[in-house]
Amino acid sequence: MDSLDLNRAGKSLEDAFFAKENARLLDQMRAKAQREERRKALRDVIQIQDEGLVDHLLELGLGPETILAVTLVPLAMVAWADGSIEPAERKAILQAASEKGVVAGSVAGQMLEAWLKEPLGSELVDAWKQYITTILPSLTPHEREEVRKMGLERARSVAEAAGGFLGLGSRISPAERAVLDDLAKVLAG
Asked: What is the pLDDT of residues 15-34, one digit of tens each?
């Protein structure tokens, strides 16, 4: 894979991700230009201590802002699966995200809260899917599994937090299951 194509795909994802009020957050993240700071920021975003994976992502030119989009877009996709988010559902989603490492008040937490106010645009979802299919071949099998597991576990937690239709029956609604299945296909490469 050509690193220029990878950088273009990453830039496309960043552009979609940081549209509107999020430009300020991008500037804040880019200010952390030192490698060790970027490594710590990247570790904070992905919530794993696999230094090999962190180093490989940095070598590929992926920063915390790109990985933040990669990890949060699935959460928002599942949250909006049924077309709306009730206050109790929103609270449950934020709690589930917190339990999976998305800290309230952090950049990731702020982004997720903003995305819970209005549905994601198709441009962002399409950019996310394109980016994932572009980056996965650059990762080792172990790294691909880590990315897949992280994305699906967090998204499944959000779906379970919503509690299905009126909290009855399955904890995951059919619309959420469809989004999870779509995520699984994309993340499988």
From this structure: 776 665 566 776 766 664 56
